[in-house]
C-alpha cells in the first residue's frame, strides 16, 4: 500500500505532531507572529476605539468589534504561517522524503493540524487574556467559549493554509492566496456590514463561507450569558469546514514542487 493511500496511523500522526512542534520551538519569529501579533493588532484597535462613545445600553465599539477579531486574527495568522511552512517542506524535498516512508498524506496533514492546533490554543489563551485584562474587553458569555471558538477558527486557518499550499509553487504564490481565500470571507462575514443588509446574492455567498459562522458564534457569546444552540451550530460548521479542508488538502498534496 502506498503512502498516499495508507490508512491513518496514530503513532505516525503523533510523531509528525512532535516534529512540527520541535521545529516551531526553534523558530522564534514564527512563535512571535502566532502568539504576540494578534494581541498587538488588537491593542491597535483598542487605541483607535477606546474613546469612541457608544449608545446607551449598547456595548462599546471595541467590545463589539474586538470580540469578533479574536476569531479573525488567529484565522489569518495561522493561514499564512501554515501555508508557507508546508510549502517549505515541499520545496526543500523534506515532504518527498517523508512520503517514501509509511507516513501517509493524511498522517502528515493531521499531524500538522494537531501541532498548529496546540499553537492555536496557546495563541487564543494569550490573546483572550490580554484582551480582557489589558484592554478591558467585556463579554457577556463565558471566556472559555471565546477561547474555544478562537481555537476552532485558527484550526480552520491551518486547514485552509495546508490546502492552499498544495497549489502554490513558491512562498510568494502562497501569500497570494490570502486575498483569494481570506479577504472575501472577511468582507462578507457580517463584521463590516450586517448580513441582513447585504444584497441577496451576497448573503448567499456569505452563507457558504465558514468565517461567517465563526463571527456569528462570537457575537452570540458577546450578547448572551448562556450558551445558545446557534453558537454550537456555528462552531460545528466551522469545525466541519476545517475537516473538509484537511481532507481536500490530503487529496491534492503533491510530493514536491515541479
Structure commentary:
The protein has helices spanning 10-25, 28-35, 37-49, 61-91, 94-98, 105-133, 143-165, 171-181, 183-188, 200-207, 210-223, 229-252. The chain is mainly α. The chain has one domain. The two termini are 25 Å apart. Belongs to the ABC-2 integral membrane protein family. One of its GO terms (cellular component) is ATP-binding cassette (ABC) transporter complex. It is found in: Cell membrane.
Instruction: Indicate the low-confidence ranges by residue numbers.
Output: 1-6
Question: Helix count, per DSSP?
Answer: 12
Terminal-residue CA separation: 25 Å
Kindly state the percentage of residues in helix. over 70%
Pfam family, one: ABC2_membrane
Subcellular location: Cell membrane
Main location: membrane
InterPro entries: ABC-2_transporter_component, ABC2_TM, ABC2_TM_bact-type, ABC_2_transport
